[in-house]
Write a structure and sequence with these properties.
Blueprint (H helix, E strand, L loop, with lengths): L15 E4 L5 H12 L9 H12 L5 E7 L4 E12 L4 E11 L8 H16 L4 E3 L6 H8 L20
Parallel strand pairs: 4-5
Antiparallel strand pairs: 1-2, 2-3, 3-4
Length: about 160
C-alpha cells in the first residue's frame, strides 16, 4: 500500500470523537501549547497549559474536553467550559481550544469536533455556545460562521489577575 503521507489519515482508519481522559494529558498539552504559540494574546507554556487542562479533566462539572482520535493518536481536540447565563436563564458553554494537529488540517476534522459539540450541547440542554475566534483570521471566522455561529454585538474585554500586567 502506498504511503498516504503524514497529513492524511489512511482509508479505513476508524475515527471517533470521545471524551478525553487524564491519560490523554500529554497529547492535549502538546496541541494546546502549539496553539498558544500562534496567538499573540497568549504565551506558550507547557506547564501552564497542562495545569489548565488537568483542572478540566479532574472535575467534569467544570467542563469537558473532547478528542478526535484514531487507534494510534489524538488528531484534534476541543475544550468546553460550563457556566450559567442569566441572559439565557440556564447553562451555557464557552468553547475554547478547537485545534487539529498540523499534520491533519484541511480534512474536515475540525468540523467533526464542532459538530460533536453542537450535538452534545443540544442533548444536554445547553442554551448557547460562545467562542472567541481569531480576530485577524478571516479563515477562522468563516469556519465558525459555516457552523452556524454569528458575531455578537459584544466585544471581549479582559483583565489579567495575578500575572504580568
Amino acid at each position: 500500500m502506498p504511503d498516504s503521507g503524514p497529513g492524511v489519515v489512511p482509508p479505513g482508519t476508524a475515527l471517533r470523537v470521545e471524551a478525553a481522559t487524564i491519560e490523554d494529558l500529554p497529547a492535549l498539552t502538546a496541541l494546546v501549547t502549539e496553539l498558544m504559540g500562534q496567538q499573540p494574546d497568549f504565551t506558550a507554556d507547557e506547564e501552564v497549559q497542562e495545569k489548565g487542562l488537568r483542572l478540566i479533566l479532574e472535575e467534569p462539572s467544570r467542563g469537558r474536553i473532547f478528542v478526535l482520535r484514531n487507534d494510534e493518536r489524538i488528531i484534534g481536540m476541543v475544550n468546553l467550559l460550563f457556566t450559567i447565563s442569566t441572559a439565557m436563564g440556564g447553562f451555557v458553554i464557552l468553547m475554547e481550544d478547537v485545534v487539529v494537529h498540523p499534520d491533519h488540517r484541511g480534512q474536515g476534522f475540525g468540523s467533526m469536533l464542532v459538530n460533536h459539540v453542537i450535538e452534545f450541547a443540544g442533548m444536554k440542554g445547553f442554551k448557547r455556545i460562545t467562542l472567541l475566534a481569531d480576530k485577524l483570521s478571516s479563515q477562522s471566522q468563516t469556519f465558525f460562521k459555516n457552523h452556524g455561529f454569528e458575531f455578537s454585538h459584544l466585544i471581549p474585554m479582559r483583565r489579567i489577575i495575578g500575572g504580568n500586567e
